[in-house]
Amino acid sequence: MSNEATRYHENVHTPTEVANPDAYPPRVVKSYPGAPRHPLPWPPEKSEHRLGRQLAELGGITRAQWLTPLDMLPFTDSFEAIPDDDPLQWLVTRRPTPSGGARYSAEWYVIAGPDSEVPAGVYYYDPARHDLVRLRSGDHRSWAASRPATTILVQTNVFWRLAAKYGEMYYRLACLEAGIQVAQALVVAADEDATARLCFPDADLTELLGLDPRSEGVHAVVELVAPVPAAFEGPALSAFPRAFAAHASVLTESRPAQQPLPSASSRETERISLPHAEADLRAGTRNRRAAMRGFSGETMPIGTLATILTAYGRPVRWDLPANLVEFYCVIADVPGVPDGAYRYLPDEHQLEPVGEGGNPRQVLREASLAALTQQGARTANVWLLPVGDAEAAEERFGPRWYRVQQAAAGAALHRACLAAAAVEVAGRIQNDVLTHLLDGRLGLDGRKRSLLVAQFGTEHPAGPRPEFRLTW
Q: Against a cut of 0.85, is the pTM above it?
């Protein structure tokens, strides 16, 4: 229980000082001078090229946004801290998924087989030009595939982009972002039977991609199987349930699901049942963005809460147990749900009260560092806090436990953000919250810890900023 991941988990809660941030280059797109390129159709949404469309929805530069010094104020707390090289306005580019400090440290690589939409080889996806840079020729899927995949997407993280701003905290953010990227990939590539893995031979893939493991790490693999033409289907066999069950048991054994981690039993408390509601997460990918000015403080209907929580606890197709994180939340101003802290139980679709009473907004405000997060503590309706049991995760995954647990937290919050966007609710994932200060109020014990926070509510009227969509 004393490995480096455990020490990091217990000690690094906030950004640390960066001695020489100017030593890190400002480039946010990699380059491979002289390497051959394979162009992808533009605009991606009007093309039949599935891979190009998926890559644009994962890591492409999809919109441009105008910001002013007033927009930057909640992130800096003073006008003096705002860069004055362009004091009137900034035009910033955005991508489909959130990233700590808009550093966009995530990268995507493609391992294509003979039946892929591009020639067999290993490629880097260049988001600035929306094309693929060929790194190797030939079929290299055997290095990464766990099933007969047509194409394999590999997600990496360029550590120094985050380290230049957040210091030692960069690794935590990189792991969380891996989960966000995987959640997005499983949504945008759902029609290609996408599955994800976060446990794989890291060293082999690092060598295949030609990465320096000291500055860039491989975090996730997404396997795609291209659809085949539809065949004529025979009559249903529902009249023969015993025979069907016998065959289904063989299929289940051939690809067994991850066994859940040991978990504490539910408390003997009165639960709150929620109405059934589910959003189209794919629709949420097209208008998801972080709330710029916080929330207005209006009440939230219980159906909207149920929609967000359904996505929060939704099982996904990956190699991690469904209960690697537990789904805690704090709720305020939702008619039918008393203000307080809860654990969401996805299988039962119920809320179980946890922790101490008192004013939940005040507790959240005390743990918030920045003005924008404190504003959300006063005016949002829902705060999601995925919780991980470090002891159970370490026993199952060894030194990898920290990485996969943080990724599971990031994925859960991103699914919730997509659901919120689909029903026009504002959301924001926050890194500037001292989550360890909330653990006692949530009734956590042992090595259980809250890992991250996302806020949801009605967006402040001054929140939306002028945007120009580059795609869609």
A: yes
